[in-house]
């Protein structure tokens, strides 16, 4: 009996031992499988997909700098950037210092070449003829680069600037009608009022100065002006929060404006660094303020209702968003549980960002160019005085008179060519493949169109392409160059800036009023150093000498 008990215990121990060994083997097997799965995943993501894309392009005769694993061409990009000057006084050469690697590779490999930043594969395109194909493509399969969409989410969310697919199509269909000429002409008085506030401020500075000339850094005032306009136009009586929102968006922009972000390398926005914590804080504050504007408006609507002729852009967005979710009717492109408030917030952030920053910069650069070319400044001033009978402030409700300001129009077009706020047009092929002219592009390739280079191409614009010559636009864009489709200050194709009519109207009115009242010259303290911070900005601001215009001498 004792022996039988001992045998029974021994069997149990053997069984337990076998189970322990078996469990250990299972754990090691699972670890082995997991490790190999990670290796295969990394191989597919980091190497195979990249090599497949590069192979497809190489077979079509497209070459570029040889990448190194796993960083691609990032090292060479950084080395070439170190050799770029910080500031350039030569007005006709600075553009190529922003991204010197593009200029270097363009000389080595031609106007179409490929390069890599880690897992991202890029195609640089500088052939004017190909702009036509991109412009004609209206497919949702050619959208914004996904790495930019993810990285810029705190700043722009899923708004129209960075969204793709149905989200983008819904927002565009909702907003485009609100920027027709018939709508934006109703905003002329608001633009005039905001500009007159800046004029009074500058007149005060001139009165207090010696000799009737004051030195001004105009950047802040121009941004204040355009921020005031976009807040009143789009958000009605809730515009007071605008300046706070703009300031916080500018801080977010400064944090995100890095080349590693722009070209899709090392997106570490999930790490709780000091910089990221500040970004998250700003994002929360901005969204909270915009949500307050939304809730206040919804409260007003419940109390007094809305009238068709009193609808501002915020009201249009609220009503459009309400109809976008699937309700009892079964209509709408978003599900009933979709966070529609977040979409409204994202749309508002996009309007804030695009509506004031780019417009302000366009006016700032134009004033600088006019200060550098006083003969054009005087020509425009004389044209304004003749058109509006020397009356200030002018009535700009007559759109025909604004259209007849040909000298001003030519200067604006030339300024947008040389100093357009947007320096890049970007696309990603989201379908399996897409045809672009003679090329077939694989899924996942990111297209980069360097606007500054396209606008300075001597083969398209002539040997004086880098010079300020507004007269080239005397016959319109179609006669200014060989390939008008390569003139893209507002983007191209289906994703062209929906607010371009608004921006042009605002530029004309603001410049008319400023030039009617002031004369501008470049300050000796001005340092010409444009930088790309998602938009083309003067690093040290634009310093001008401003004096009052005597109407009798105009």
Task: Describe, in short, the structure shown.
56% of the residues lie in helices and 10% in strands. It is α+β, with helices and mostly antiparallel strands and 554 residues long.
The CATH topology name of the domain at 38-140 and 423-488 reads Uridine Diphospho-n-acetylenolpyruvylglucosamine Reductase, domain 2
CATH architecture of the domain at 38-140 and 423-488: 2-Layer Sandwich
Q: What is the count of β-strands?
A: 12
CATH C-level label of the domain at 38-140 and 423-488: Alpha Beta
Number of discrete helical segments: 23
Q: Give the uncertain stretches in residue-range form.
A: 9-20
Structural class computed from helices and strand pairing: alpha+beta
Instruction: Name the strands of the widest sheet in spatial order.
Output: 1-2-8-5-3
- The CA-CA distance between the termini, in Å, is 125 Å
Strand content: 5-15%
Largest sheet: 5 strands, mixed
Structural shape? globular
Binding site for heme: 497
Subcellular location: Membrane
Cofactor: heme
Membrane topology: Single-pass membrane protein
């Amino acid at each position: 009996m004792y022996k039988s008990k001992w045998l029974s215990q021994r069997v149990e121990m053997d069984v337990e031992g076998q189970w322990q060994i078996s469990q250990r083997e299972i754990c090691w097997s699972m670890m082995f499988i997991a490790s190999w799965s990670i290796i295969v995943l990394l191989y597919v993501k980091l190497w195979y997909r990249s090599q497949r894309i590069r192979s497809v392009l190489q077979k079509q005769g497209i070459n570029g700098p040889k990448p190194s694993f796993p960083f691609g061409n990032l090292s060479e990009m950084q080395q070439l950037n170190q050799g770029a000057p910080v500031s350039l006084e030569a007005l006709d050469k600075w553009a190529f210092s922003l991204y010197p690697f593009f200029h270097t590779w363009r000389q080595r490999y031609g106007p179409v070449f490929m390069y890599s930043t880690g897992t991202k594969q890029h195609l640089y395109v500088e052939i004017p003829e190909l702009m036509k194909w991109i412009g004609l493509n209206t497919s949702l399969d050619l959208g914004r680069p996904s790495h930019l969409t993810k990285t810029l989410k705190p700043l722009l969310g899923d708004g129209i600037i960075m969204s793709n697919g149905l989200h983008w199509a819904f927002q565009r269909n909702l907003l485009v009608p609100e920027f027709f000429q018939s709508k934006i002409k109703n905003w002329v008085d608001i633009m005039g009022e905001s500009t007159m506030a800046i004029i009074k401020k500058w007149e005060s500075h001139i009165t207090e100065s010696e000799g009737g000339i004051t030195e001004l850094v105009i950047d802040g005032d121009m941004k204040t002006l355009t921020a005031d306009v976009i807040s009143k136009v789009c958000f009605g009586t809730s515009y007071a929060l605008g300046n706070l929102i703009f300031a916080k968006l500018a801080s977010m922009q400064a944090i995100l404006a890095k080349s590693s972000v722009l070209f899709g390398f090392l997106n570490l926005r999930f790490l709780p660094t000091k910089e990221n914590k500040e970004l998250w804080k700003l994002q929360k504050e901005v969204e909270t303020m915009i949500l307050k504007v939304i809730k206040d408006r919804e409260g007003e609507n419940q109390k007094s209702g809305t009238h068709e002729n009193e609808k501002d852009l915020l009201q249009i967005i609220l009503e459009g968003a309400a109809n976008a979710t699937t309700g009892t009717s079964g209509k709408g492109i978003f599900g009933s549980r979709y966070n529609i408030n977040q979409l409204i917030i994202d749309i508002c952030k996009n309007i804030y960002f695009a509506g004031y920053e780019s417009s302000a910069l366009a006016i700032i650069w134009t004033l600088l160019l006019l200060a550098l070319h006083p003969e054009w400044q005087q020509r425009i001033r004389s044209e304004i005085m003749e058109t509006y009978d020397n009356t200030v402030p002018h009535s700009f409700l007559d759109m025909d008179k604004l259209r007849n300001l040909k000298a001003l129009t030519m200067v604006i077009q030339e300024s947008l060519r040389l100093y357009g706020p947007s320096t890049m047009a970007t696309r990603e092929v989201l379908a399996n493949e897409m045809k672009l002219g003679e090329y077939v592009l694989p899924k996942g390739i990111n297209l980069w169109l360097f606007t500054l280079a396209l606008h300075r191409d001597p083969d398209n614009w002539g040997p004086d392409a880098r010079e300020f010559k507004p007269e080239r636009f005397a016959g319109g864009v179609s006669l200014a160059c060989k390939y008008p489709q390569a003139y893209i200050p507002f983007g191209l194709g289906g994703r062209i800036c929906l607010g371009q009519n608004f921006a042009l109207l605002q530029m004309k009115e603001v410049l008319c009023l400023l030039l009617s009242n002031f004369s501008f010259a470049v300050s000796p303290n001005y340092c010409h150093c444009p930088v790309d911070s998602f938009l083309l900005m003067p690093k040290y601001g634009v310093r001008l000498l401003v004096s009052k215009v005597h109407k009798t001498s105009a």
